[in-house]
Write a structure and sequence with these properties.
The complex is a heterodimer of chains A (200) and B (322). The longest helix of chain A is centred in the first third of the chain and has 30 residues. Chain A has one domain. Helix content of chain A is 82%, strand content 0%. Chain A has 200 residues and is mostly helical. The two termini of chain A are 22 Å apart. In chain B, a hairpin with a 5-residue loop joins strand 2 and strand 3. Chain B is an alpha+beta fold and 322 residues long. Chain B is built from 10 helices and 13 strands. In chain B, strands 1, 4, 5, 8, 9, 10, 12 and 13 form an 8-stranded mixed β-sheet that branches. In chain B, strands 3-2-11-6-7 form a 5-stranded mixed β-sheet. Classes of the chains: A mainly alpha (200), B alpha+beta (322). Chains A and B meet through helix 2 and helix 4 of A and helix 4 of B.
Chain lengths: 200, 322
């Protein structure tokens, strides 16, 4: 199967559309904030909504490469960075809400949380791993770092695993939703392992 | 198709209940006795009227006097009825409100068993009719570190328990929430917890005057999502201890199993007293978010009821018996 590359103007239009689509969850929250319609516990809504979208964009980002293998459409890969950047945007949003409303920028509060609450440890680890990826998410870094850039960006796998565990450890009792995301991630990682062992 | 719909308890909006400011003035009006007298006259016309559901207690719930307040702002009816943890009706905070209609509370009966002289099956009328209702404003602190201030209607649970004449072997009381295998609630079709939901108290905790059997909220019969028709309110313990929609009460000699403790023993102890000094692996218990506020506030020892309940736990290591 091969999905031929559309012409340049269509690709540009697609890119703009993609950015707009990625912005929708943030606009939804902004609209809710303006109209005072963020539910009974607005801080919780902001935290959960932004966190969940960070995870979704992370998983979407990891879908591009297997999709390229499946459809032989290397032009799709040019959209991968946008999805990664948006995942980081929502992760920052998520962390920002925590810093402002939960920790209130109190270093001892943050330290206790990170050290004593395993789900927060995982969330923090996920964010810290995404940080260098976001910083080097540009062509200049790619040129300077060369092969190291590819090596560095393999961190996304560990980051995604940390984020999935963060969600699983957060919920009370036995809940399906975080396990669904973990299963999707497992499938995306499995496809890579299978491809890798086939090509080597 | 029905053309005229009467709103069910759980569908009430904030506009349907009395405004919080008028709420207390109305009590004063009820006390003047004009309407109370006319109600008594009405009742004498229907001497054989039996009350089968808590809706039949609406008048008495509305007339209940406030006997206890806290110097803090009440949470709104909307907040209290649309943000709930009631896993039988779903795990999202808004699920219980959406699924409230699936809980069938009429008819309702409670099975009382175990170490007591007067066990049996009791209808809602049997359980509630002999008691005077009062309104108490309590803080509610969830183990997830959010909290509310709620006007409950009901009476001291001890008054009900005494009627069953617990014997000297009764060291604990175990409770169960509705679990009808032929009509499972949506959450009960999942394995989020081991069903039925189970809770328990030590006898002295159950008999403590603060422990309340709740039948109403904001002067209205209790909405389904808040645990209709009867639930407990134990204000010095994390919210999950205050079991909802009770169908079984059993006096036991040994500590009963409780649902959250079975699910994650390291996180949820049998006692689960609100304690800012005892670390919980997931949520900081040192502070909480009051619903309606953005920033956190400090959590009080025993949720602010320390003076009244600390004596229950003198000689106990609260970091061990968390």
């Amino acid at each position: 199967m091969q999905l031929a590359s559309p012409n340049r103007s269509i690709r540009v239009t697609l890119r703009i559309a993609l950015h707009f689509l990625c912005l929708i969850p943030a606009l939804y929250l902004a609209w809710g904030a303006v109209t005072g319609d963020l539910g009974i516990n607005p801080v919780e809504t902001l935290t959960h909504f932004s966190g969940e979208w960070a995870l979704r964009f992370l998983l979407l980002c990891l879908t591009i490469t297997p999709l390229n293998w499946l459809l032989s459409a290397p032009w799709l890969v040019s959209y991968r960075r946008a999805l990664g950047d948006w995942a980081f945007f929502y992760a920052c949003f998520h962390l920002g809400v925590y810093m402002l409303f939960d920790a209130q920028f109190d270093p001892s509060y943050i330290l206790t949380d990170v050290l004593k609450r395993p789900y927060i440890t995982m969330g923090a680890a996920g964010f810290i791993m995404l940080l260098p990826l976001a910083i080097t998410s540009n062509q200049w870094s790619q040129r300077v770092l060369r092969r190291n850039w590819v090596r560095l960006h393999k961190l996304i796998y560990s980051a995604a695993i940390a984020v999935c565990i963060h969600f699983i450890w957060l919920v009370k009792g036995f809940q399906i939703e975080p396990l669904v995301y973990a299963a999707i991630l497992a499938a995306l990682l499995f496809v890579r392992i299978a491809q890798h062992s086939r090509s080597s | 198709m029905t053309l005229i719909r009467t709103k069910k308890r759980h569908h009430l909006s904030e506009a349907d209940v009395t405004d919080e400011k008028l709420f207390h003035q109305r009590r004063a009006f009820m006390k003047t006795g004009v309407s109370a007298a006319s109600m008594a006259a009405m009742a004498s016309y229907f001497p054989t009227l039996t009350r089968a559901s808590i809706d039949d207690f609406a008048d008495r719930i509305a007339a209940a006097e406030t006997t206890r307040t806290v110097d803090e702002e009440l949470n709104s009816f909307e907040e209290i009825t649309q943000y709930n943890n009631f896993y039988e009706l779903g795990v999202d905070k808004s699920d219980p409100y959406r699924n409230a209609h699936l809980l069938e509370t009429d008819p309702w009966s409670v099975e009382v068993s175990g170490e007591c002289n007067k066990p049996g099956n009791f209808s809602i009328d049997d359980l509630l009719a002999p008691h005077n209702f009062e309104e108490r404003i309590y803080r509610l602190r969830c183990v997830e570190a959010w909290s509310m201030v709620i006007p409950w209607t009901g009476f001291s649970f001890s008054k009900l328990l005494q009627r069953f004449e617990p014997n000297s072997n009764a060291k604990y009381v175990a409770f169960e929430t509705l679990y009808d295998r032929s009509n499972l609630l949506p959450g009960q079709r999942t394995r989020v917890l081991q069903w039925p939901y189970r809770e328990g108290l030590r006898m002295d905790e159950a008999m403590h005057p603060l422990t309340m059997l709740v039948t109403g909220l904001y002067g209205r019969p209790l909405p389904n999502q808040n645990g209709a028709p009867i639930r407990l309110a134990i204000p010095w313990k994390y919210g999950f201890k205050s079991i909802k929609s009770i169908v079984k009460i059993r006096f036991t000699q040994t500590e009963p199993e409780t649902s959250w403790n079975l699910s994650q023993p390291r996180e949820y102890g049998f006692y689960s007293n609100v304690n800012p000094n005892v670390n919980h692996p997931r949520w900081s218990q040192a502070s909480e978010r009051r619903i309606g506020e953005f920033f956190r506030r400090d959590t009080l020892m025993f949720n602010g009821y320390e003076e009244e309940v600390a004596s229950l736990y003198t000689d106990m290591d609260l970091t061990r018996y968390y």
